[in-house]
């Protein structure tokens, strides 16, 4: 049966008495406290997981048969979600609701593909979403999103823009969906990538479209780190930043990540931001992070440092983890506040 909330825990079951099954293990983010190994009973396998502050949980089962392990979705749970690493079963706990804008009226849009050139060895593919009735020559704000295609596929960010334009919450604007060709190298503080976007990249978009007001940039995980670094580099041309679950690695918090090839570069760049004490170009910065996810401590440190340097910063702790649905659900009001502050309210 599907996971059941019983008192202070979630009960997971795999009702399969196949004698060849020797173990069942719950696969979910390691930040979630509690056991992972199921116990056998007369009907199959069961696990009780203590309820945390989460409102939803993505998971799979690892089913062992001797030396063989099959990783499967929960066969008793029809609710699944797409992720950057394939589909997951998902359980939604009391209090969870999807964002209102998913079912709101939306303006139609069109997609316009480009490539940006600069110092990177590869061109940067960018697809620009544009409201159908917005001419390229009409000045309008611009939002640039790192991991843009995944953000759109898994977090519906152009649906968000289309709905908030249609309902008058945001002014008509364009969304540049930047694709990472060499993600780890580019989104780990690559100076060549950052300069490419900050200079010729924004120049190229500005030549193709009439851009009004400061640009806003967004991203999650390594893309959230990149959004902050780009904002600091390109201000005041960039005026707003929205970073979700940013990978602001520090030695004191993130030793488990120290084997990552770009850990040293990231931690040095993060420390340089933490050491800042003033800024000539204050940014409007929104941040979100799962309250129990592993990036929470370094996000709190980054928010405090940016605020101390003179930026306007709002960090929201959400009841979810490191995934695109969590980032989707936090777009409003988090990103909305940044964009309305930087761009002004809709006419």
Automatic annotation (TrEMBL):
Signal peptide: none
Matches recorded under Pfam families: Esterase
Domain of life: Bacteria
Xref: PANTHER family: ENTEROCHELIN ESTERASE-RELATED, IRON(III) ENTEROBACTIN ESTERASE
Protein name from the UniProt record: Esterase
């Amino acid at each position: 049966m599907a996971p059941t909330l019983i008192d202070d825990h979630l009960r997971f079951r795999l009702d399969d008495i196949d004698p060849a099954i020797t173990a069942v293990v719950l696969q979910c983010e390691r930040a979630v406290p509690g056991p992972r190994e199921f116990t056998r009973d007369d009907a199959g396998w069961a696990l009780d997981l203590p309820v945390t502050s989460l409102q939803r949980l993505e998971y799979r089962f690892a089913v062992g048969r001797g030396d063989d392990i099959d990783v499967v979705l929960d066969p008793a749970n029809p609710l699944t979600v797409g992720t950057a690493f394939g589909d997951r079963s998902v359980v939604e706990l009391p209090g969870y609701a999807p964002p209102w804008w998913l079912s709101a009226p939306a303006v139609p849009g069109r997609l316009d593909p480009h490539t940006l050139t600069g110092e990177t060895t590869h061109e940067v593919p960018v697809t620009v979403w544009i409201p159908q009735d917005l001419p390229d020559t009409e000045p309008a704000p611009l939002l640039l999103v790192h991991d843009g295609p995944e953000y759109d596929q898994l977090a519906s960010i152009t649906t968000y823009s289309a709905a908030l334009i249609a309902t008058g919450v945001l002014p008509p604007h364009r969304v540049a969906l930047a694709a990472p060709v060499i993600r780890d190298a580019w989104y780990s503080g690559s100076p060549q990538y950052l300069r490419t976007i900050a200079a010729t990249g924004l120049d190229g978009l500005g030549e193709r479209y009439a851009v009004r007001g400061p640009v806003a940039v967004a991203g999650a995980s390594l893309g959230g780190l990149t959004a902050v670094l780009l904002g600091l580099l390109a201000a005041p041309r960039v005026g707003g930043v929205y970073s979700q679950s940013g990978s602001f690695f520090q030695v004191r918090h993130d030793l488990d990540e120290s084997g990552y090839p770009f850990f040293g570069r990231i931690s040095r760049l993060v420390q340089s931001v933490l050491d800042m004490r003033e800024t000539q170009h204050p940014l409007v910065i929104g941040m979100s992070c799962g309250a129990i996810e592993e990036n929470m401590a370094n996000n709190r440190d980054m928010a405090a440092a940016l605020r101390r340097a003179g930026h306007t910063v709002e960090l929201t702790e959400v009841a979810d983890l490191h995934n695109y649905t969590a980032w989707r659900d936090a777009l409003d009001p988090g990103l909305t506040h940044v964009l309305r502050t930087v761009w002004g309210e809709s006419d």
